[in-house]
Amino acid sequence: MSPHTTPPAGRPDTPEPPIREIVREHYAAAARHSAAGDYEQALQAEQQFDQPGYEANCCGTTGTTAVYGGHLYGDEAGETLAAALSASLGCGVPTAVADLHSGETVLDLGSGAGADVLISARRVGPRGRVIGLDMTPEMLELARRNAAAAGVDNVEFVHGYLEQIPLPDDSVDVVLSNCVINLAADKTVVLAEAARVLRPGGRFAVSDIIADTDIDQATRDDPQQWTGCIAGALTHRQFTHALHLAGFVDVEIAETHRVHPRAVAAIVRAHTPG
User: Fold this and answer.
1) pTM: predicted TM-score of the whole model, two decimal places
2) What is the mean pLDDT of residues 60-75?
3) H helices within the chain, ranges in order?
């Protein structure tokens, strides 16, 4: 599929990668707990493994300070619904670096419970629009509930896949994502799709996990480490190369905090030419 050809909406026309179903069930479990208001259980559903000096939590691990979840937002959250923040499983705050403006159209890849969508909706205002894309029905239902409770009506939550975004070419101004791209089996396709839907000069601002260059193969091969956001993470060099391959320019990757003995969280920014 050409990165500049609009794909049909709905399920991909190729067989689902096995990792996709593992990831989907993993986050469906977290969504079910969050929907019931049991956020501690939602986090426990994310627990994967133990490492010296780290406590298992959320997408992977935490140390003695908060490295995942809604507590990372601080003042950035503003009036965002507490339930959406409590259910956040992200590793950063992409809205803090997206430089959102009134009237813009924003796409959040892997929107989860909707925290970044709700923050973005208030930034772009009533003339703007925010689209949350997620493959997990339970997460979409939770996000719609959170948006309704927050009284936000310039948002839309869409079922779909990062590898086949159900939007036209050149249709959004900003692409956000929070600790989700690492979960995709083929990041090059995901980034090409992000570039395809962005307008000329469109902005890419995501939080994600960057693997150390010495990450071991055993970690790479462990499905639990994949759902823990570690095994599928690209290195700094790999992520930069993949963005350039997709057509992005002015790539910046700024590490924010360590989340694993062999991986860090980072803010990744780039834009399309134009």
Assistant:
1) 0.79
2) 48
3) 18-35, 39-45, 82-86, 115-124, 137-150, 187-197, 217-220, 223-227, 236-246
